[in-house]
Amino acid sequence: MPLNQSYECMLSEESEFCIEETRESMDNALAHFEREFQKIRAGKASPQMLDGVKVDYYGVMTSIDKVSNITTPDPRQIIVQPWEKSMLAPIEKAILAANLGFNPQNNGEVLRIIVPPLTEERRRDLVKKAKMEAENAKVAIRNVRRNAMETSKKLKKDGIPEDEIEQLENEIQKLTDRYIEKIDKAFEAKEKDIMTV
């Protein structure tokens, strides 16, 4: 058979499972990365800025989006409206304790958070933080790749044919490249977003 003819052998169930597991793990790493990225604010107000803020709700630490309505009426402010008025003070305390650089204004009905415009220095810090998150995500993707390659070596020992192992490893590499590219594109967009005044 000529070398340039593309020949894809049917993959065994074990190889298919390895690819599926690899894709799933890479999806999870990408999803985690995207969540972390949403927390890096580019100066525009968004409800995600308060993700991770927990408030003491009758003795249970609860996300503030579970005890209030969070809206952004304009790009410079976030409004937090608790479903129970008694939660205003605890939510305010939780936002301050989260150390996000916000100073909520409590008017007895809602908490109004004015999102300060970013300084040049703060923008550069955020780009550094975004770059670090992107690097962490790439490390996670490469770890998934390494585990998948180890699985392919085990499959080879278990008697899976050489050409199938080669195809499996090519698939794993293609997945890795695709996810790394997604991370790079997301970082470029985020950097542009942060640096745009």
Mean pLDDT: 89
Cα-based radius of gyration, to the nearest Å: 23 Å
> Mind telling me which CATH architecture of the largest domain this is?
Orthogonal Bundle
Characterize the main sheet: 4 strands, antiparallel
Short description:
Helix content is 55%, strand content 14%. It has four helices and six strands.
How do the strands and helices of this protein lay out in sequence?
Elements: H1 13-39, E1 54-57, E2 60-63, E3 68-74, E4 77-82, H2 88-97, E5 105-106, E6 111-114, H3 120-157, H4 162-195
Antiparallel strand pairs: 1-2, 3-4, 4-6, 5-6
Helix pairs in contact: 1-3, 1-4, 3-4
Structure keywords:
single chain, 197 residues, alpha+beta, Topoisomerase I, Chain A, domain 4, Gyrase A, domain 2, 4-stranded antiparallel beta sheet, two-stranded antiparallel ribbon, 4 helices, 55% helix, disordered N terminus
Account of the 3D structure:
- The protein has about 200 residues and is of the alpha+beta class.
- The chain has two domains: about 100 residues, Topoisomerase I, Chain A, domain 4, CATH 1.10.132; about 70 residues, Gyrase A, domain 2 (2-Layer Sandwich), CATH 3.30.1360.
- It contains four helices and six strands, in the order αββββαββαα.
- Strands 3-4-6-5 form a four-stranded antiparallel sheet, covered by helices on one side. A two-stranded antiparallel sheet has the order 1-2.
- Helix 1 runs antiparallel to helix 3, helix 1 packs parallel to helix 4 and helix 3 packs antiparallel against helix 4.
- It starts with 12 loop residues before the first helix and ends with a helix.
- The N terminus is likely disordered.
